[in-house]
């Protein structure tokens, strides 16, 4: 997925998410869409997995999610299906976040922890 954004903004995004990975070591990296900005986005996902593996003795314990099936076809990430159903057979590596109607109508927001 390549969004229409100025090159300097793409670089700023890359640097901020890289800083997040390097300083906070998340085990889950989620974006609300596909992997952004083409090769720059794939470099970021690669960096996420490499840092995660280094922190866990060479074994990846983290997951990156994407809402674009094409991103996930090669095992790059887990497909995020939000409030919907797949129109194809799934292998079990997807993430589902089905919210029921009362939570969606809650004025405090669409998600609760």
Query: Could you say which overall geometry the principal axes of the C-alpha atoms support?
Result: globular
Let me know the average pLDDT: 81
- Whole-number radius of gyration? 16 Å
Query: Domains counted in the coordinates: how many?
Result: 1
The description of the largest β-sheet is: 4 strands, parallel
The count of β-strands is 4
Q: Fraction of residues in helices?
A: 25-40%
Which class do the helix and strand fractions yield? alpha/beta
Number of helices: 4
Tell me the strand percentage band: 5-15%
Biggest sheet strand order reads 1-2-3-4
Order of helices and strands: HEHEHEEH
Low-confidence stretches: 103-113
Cα end-to-end separation: 29 Å
Task: Chart the SSEs and their pairings.
Layout: H1 7-24, E1 28-30, H2 38-55, E2 63-66, H3 69-72, E3 78-82, E4 95-97, H4 101-104
Parallel strand pairs: 1-2, 2-3, 3-4
Helix pairs in contact: 1-2
Concise account of the structure shown:
About 40% of the residues lie in helices and about 15% in strands.
Describe the structure.
With 113 residues, the protein is an alpha/beta fold. The chain has one domain (7-104). 39% of the residues lie in helices and 13% in strands. It is built from four helices and four strands, in the order αβαβαββα. The protein has helices at residues 7-24, 38-55, 69-72, 101-104, and strands at 28-30, 63-66, 78-82, 95-97. Strands 1-2-3-4 form a four-stranded parallel sheet. Strand 1, helix 2 and strand 2 form a beta-alpha-beta unit. Helix 1 (7-24) runs parallel beside helix 2. It is globular, with a radius of gyration of 16 Å.
């Amino acid at each position: 997925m390549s969004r229409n954004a100025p090159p300097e903004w793409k670089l700023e995004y890359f640097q901020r998410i890289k800083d997040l990975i390097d300083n906070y070591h998340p085990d889950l990296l989620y974006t609300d869409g596909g992997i952004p900005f083409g090769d720059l986005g794939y470099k970021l996902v690669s960096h996420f997995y490499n840092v995660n593996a280094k922190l866990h003795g060479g074994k990846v314990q983290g997951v990156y999610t994407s809402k674009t099936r094409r991103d996930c076809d090669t095992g790059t990430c887990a497909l995020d299906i939000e409030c919907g159903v797949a129109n194809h057979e799934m292998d079990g590596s997807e993430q589902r976040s089905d919210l029921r109607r009362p939570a969606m109508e809650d004025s405090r927001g669409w998600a609760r922890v």
